[in-house]
Amino acid sequence: MKSCLPAATIGIFLCNCVGNSLRCTSCNTDGTKCSGWFRTCGQNFDTCAVILIEDTYEGNRQWRGVKTCANSRVCQMPLQYMNMGRGRYERTSIICCRGNACRNAVPRFQPGFIKPNGRQCPACLASTRTECGSAKVSCSGDELYCIEAQQYIWQSNSKFLDL
């Protein structure tokens, strides 16, 4: 899968650690809301994060809700957006909170997307590399770099390679 990626995109590294008195809800589920049990956060985590991931695939919009311990550096991250071409994108919004403020915290996305910035990246969303043609995806806003990644997707007992 090749796509446009914002320059500000940084990997979010969240893990299950044990150690201090901060406690955050821990859950990861399909849909816009999740609820789970409280986890005591490790010493490197100083806030709770509520994360909403929106993904489109074959015209279907899907959401994933995540609540977890986090480092407050993720609180300053802008909306994460990855345009994979052919109408497929993934975007992530994060809200940091503590205590009761996390209970009803819901990350939001801005409606619509930013105008194209003139850059283009190769676009391929296919089962095999040989299916990739010369398709391009138009980058927008602060999307300055192209990335290449691959993953295996399992659907109805079939395996697809997403390039």
TrEMBL record:
<dbReference type="Pfam" id="PF02988">
    <property type="entry name" value="PLA2_inh"/>
</dbReference>
<dbReference type="Pfam" id="PF00021">
    <property type="entry name" value="UPAR_LY6"/>
</dbReference>
<dbReference type="GO" id="GO:0019834">
    <property type="term" value="F:phospholipase A2 inhibitor activity"/>
</dbReference>
<keyword id="KW-0732">Signal</keyword>
<dbReference type="InterPro" id="IPR045860">
    <property type="entry name" value="Snake_toxin-like_sf"/>
</dbReference>
<keyword id="KW-1015">Disulfide bond</keyword>
<keyword id="KW-0593">Phospholipase A2 inhibitor</keyword>
<keyword id="KW-0964">Secreted</keyword>
<dbReference type="GO" id="GO:0005576">
    <property type="term" value="C:extracellular region"/>
</dbReference>
<dbReference type="InterPro" id="IPR016054">
    <property type="entry name" value="LY6_UPA_recep-like"/>
</dbReference>
<comment type="similarity">
    <text>Belongs to the CNF-like-inhibitor family.</text>
</comment>
<feature type="signal peptide">
    <location>
        <begin position="1"/>
        <end position="19"/>
    </location>
</feature>
<feature type="domain" description="Phospholipase A2 inhibitor N-terminal">
    <location>
        <begin position="23"/>
        <end position="103"/>
    </location>
</feature>
<feature type="domain" description="UPAR/Ly6">
    <location>
        <begin position="117"/>
        <end position="158"/>
    </location>
</feature>
<dbReference type="InterPro" id="IPR004126">
    <property type="entry name" value="PLipase_A2_inh_N"/>
</dbReference>
<dbReference type="InterPro" id="IPR050918">
    <property type="entry name" value="CNF-like_PLA2_Inhibitor"/>
</dbReference>
<protein>
    <submittedName>
        <fullName>Uncharacterized protein</fullName>
    </submittedName>
</protein>
